[in-house]
Amino acid sequence: MAVSRYRASINGFWCHNETWDDALNWDGKHDEVFIAVNTKVVDTNGTILQNFDSEGAVMGDTWSISGRVQAGSASDRGGIVSNDKYPSQTPWKNLSGMLNEGVRAPPYKIWEGDLKPGEDLVLLTPTIWEWDPGTGFWDGWLAWQVEVDAKYGQRAKDIFGGIWPVAAPVFDAVSLGIQTVGTLAGLWSPLGQSMRRPIGIRRDPNDPNNFLFNPRTIALNCETAEYLVNHDLQGLGNGVVELLYSDDPYLRGVYSIYVQIDQLSSGHAEWTDVGHANNVVGMTALDGRLFCATADNQLWMRDAVHTEVDWIRIGHANNVVGLAALGGRLFCATADNRLWSRDALPREIDWTEIGHANGISDMTALDGNLFCATNDNGLWVRQPLLRNLNWTRIGNANGAIAMAAAPGSLYCANVNGLYRRDPVMTDVGWQQIGTAPDIRALAAVNGELFAATGGNRLLVRQ
Q1: Which of 137, 303, 306, 418 is at 20 to 30 A from 82, Cα to Cα?
Q2: CA 391 to CA 331: how far, in whole Å?
Q3: Crossing angle of the two packed helices 149-160 and 138-147, in degrees rounded to 10
Q4: Cα separations in angstroms, 404 against 280, 285, 328, 351, 458
Q5: What are the strands, taking DSSP E only, across 18-76?
């Protein structure tokens, strides 16, 4: 198994039942919550290499309080009540496919990185907290995360040693023989207590004044992550993990957090991750630069280098389904079956309609010709003249999702892999030359292929 890149994100939460924390609602109407995540990176010997906590944005009632994210239906300013879901009515799904970057509220990323066979394990412990202005046990929680490192390290050794099955990548603290234990004076009082606390607190049966908290952890290495993204564990979709936290009945709170594990790039050796390529729907290359059209109708450009660099917006590109470049010009096919062209200069320029482009899934250019694949699996060609011309069918498109071209070769990616064929005007066979890890767009430049993936990554191979 080769190196693969994965991402963990919080898709949303569901308040099955709101908490009983402060009858006077000093913190805002009904519940205000935030998500906290502890992340540990552990080596094969069980040594904790990294241990850090992140605290998300407070979500709930925004009345008279700045910096919050509005959530919930208690008022026109928010406030979370029983059966509220955030950010949609299906919070286990990321409906937009986008992640928040300016605010740590769902959907947002909590971890991203490469997972290598036999190397480090990542342990993610997401929890959801009721926010209040009073003191709570946040500081104690941070200290607890450090104190139990040895227990988590032993679980990591069990995973690496095959003692712990790959099919059980989610566990709780009790399974490690540990729980959080503490005393919160007034927590059980009739008015409740104003404090920050995790949802999921239970009474200690041995001491009714003490609480117990049993957080849940997702363990990610190359095996468990691959297992998660390819299995539907709870009927919510592949890669989705529901973490349910239930309070003692007196405290009432019951919340679910939905964590999504995505594979950003398949770790096949021929591809290397070189940056981001967000929501790309078409890509091409010209004069050592990559050009791409995105789902939000924007046109972007970046250098075709093997490092993470910013894409630069250079104009609009509406409803693009295929993009090609030739002779200093860009050509695009659009969802309404039209063909357009513009200069490839790095500024806003109007596109000019130059003909029809019916049912195109992607396109490319080579040797003075435009080539396209169509949804009925046809491979077609026409000259890049700036007027309406008929396309000529020259073969089958091999189920192409994405296309590119380089001297002597046409390339296509489909659901099964990466293929090439000679750019002749007859129907010849396609030969598989590699893998196509969730590739949505291709471009060829300087003897290399660049690919944009459904996981918003930019890959390169020779």
Answers
A1: 137
A2: 15
A3: 50
A4: 15, 9, 17, 22, 15
A5: 33-42, 48-55, 59-60, 69-70
What residues contact residue 303 under an 8 Å CB cut-off, 6+ apart?
288, 289, 290, 309
Angle, CA 247 vertex, CA 242 and CA 252 arms, to 5°: 110
CB within 8 A of 194, min separation 6: which ones? 21, 22, 24, 26, 27, 132, 133, 134
- What is the C-alpha separation between 8 and 3, in angstroms, rounded? 17
Helix (H, G, I), strand (E, B) or coil at 60: strand
The pLDDT tens digits of the residues spanning 138-172 come to: 666 777 777 777 888 888 778 777 777 777 889 88
3-state DSSP: the chain helix, strand, coil percent, rounded to 5? 5, 45, 45
DSSP tally for the chain: helices H, then strands E: 3, 36
pLDDT tens digit sequence for 89-99? 999 998 877 88
Residues 48 and 28 sit within 8 Å (Cβ to Cβ): no
Q: Which residues pair with 12 in a beta bridge?
A: 258
d(CA 67, CA 333): 43
- Cβ-contact 333, 364 below 8 angstroms: no
Among residues 227, 38, 21, 219, the alpha carbon closest in space to that of 123 is found at: 219
Q: Is residue 127 packed enough to be buried (19+ CB in 10 Å), middle (13-18) or exposed (0-12)?
A: buried
Region for residue 3 given its phi and psi (left: phi exceeds 0; alpha: psi -120 to 50; beta: otherwise): beta
Cα(266)–Cα(272) distance, integer angstroms: 10
Distance CA 79, CA 69 (A): 10
What's the rounded Cα separation, in Å, for the pair 453 and 444?
Answer: 15
Looking at residue 24, its pLDDT comes to 45
* pTM of the shown model: 0.58
The Cα–Cα gap between 386 and 365 comes to 14
Residue 343 has a pLDDT of: 96
- Dist CA 295 CA 278 (whole Å): 9
67 Ramachandran zone, left/alpha/beta (phi>0; psi -120 to 50): left
b/e for 173-196, b at 16 or more Cβ within 10 A? beeeebbbebebeebbeeebbbbb
263, 435 Cβ separation under 8 angstroms? no
* Token pair of 117 as six digits: 């066979």
